[in-house]
Amino acid sequence: MKSFRLPRKTKKKLKKTIWLYPADEKGNSLMAWPTRLPKDYDAVKKGTVRDIMAGSTKATRKKEKEILNKVIEISDDQLRVFVDKIFAKEYRNPSYRTLLKAKNNPKAVVAYYNFINAYYLAEKDEGSYSNICCMSVDLAKDLLKRKK
Predict the structure, then answer these.
(1) Could you give phi then psi for residue 9, rounded to 5 degrees?
(2) Residues 71, 69: Cα–Cα separation, whole Å
(3) Which of 13, 60, 84, 102 would bridge with 112, disulfide CB 3.0–4.6 Å?
(4) Closest CA to 86 of 138, 39, 132, 144
(5) SS3 category, 28
(6) Which of 73, 72, 96, 100 lies closest to 86 in space, CA to CA?
(7) Do the beta carbons of residue 6 and residue 35 sit within 8 Å?
């Protein structure tokens, strides 16, 4: 089976942003990985996937990043409650374990902070921060992977 490969410049251009599929009836979107998956790359070419960074400036992204990266600590029991409220039943345990590992890992702790801060913002109903909660778990998985 032939592996999926993109030209270097195309791949570099696609990696600079976050891609999301259209929102469902609850307002949640799936994240697309056009540099990894051919079906996601085809969706980018067709225009079904949107660029989350389109229309935002560097200053606004920096402010959002400061808000999401704010250091905050909660108990493991409270983290379990947050995960139960955000995720469907089949994703709760793996997501909870991933966030616990991220909490104790110096490289992945930023994903843990992103999850907690995005959860608090989602509770206040400020935008679609529940998507960021889910994406922070994906980020934690990527940061916890050990490079060979």
Answers:
(1) -65, -40
(2) 6
(3) 102
(4) 132
(5) coil
(6) 96
(7) yes
Q: Which residues contact 4 (CB under 8 A, 6 or more apart)?
A: 36, 37, 38, 41
Residue type, position 112, single letter: Y
Residue 36 and residue 5: Cα distance in Å, rounded? 8
Yes or no: say if 132 and 120 are a contact pair by the CB < 8 Å rule: no
Whose structure tokens read 């992945």? 108
Q: What are phi and psi of 143, to 5 degrees?
A: -75, -25
Counting beta carbons within 10 angstroms of the beta carbon of residue 25, is it exposed (0 to 12), middle (13 to 18) or buried (19 or more)? exposed
Question: pTM for the complete prediction?
Answer: 0.67
At 110, the amino acid letter reads V
Segment 49-80, tens digit of pLDDT: 888 777 677 888 788 888 888 999 899 999 99
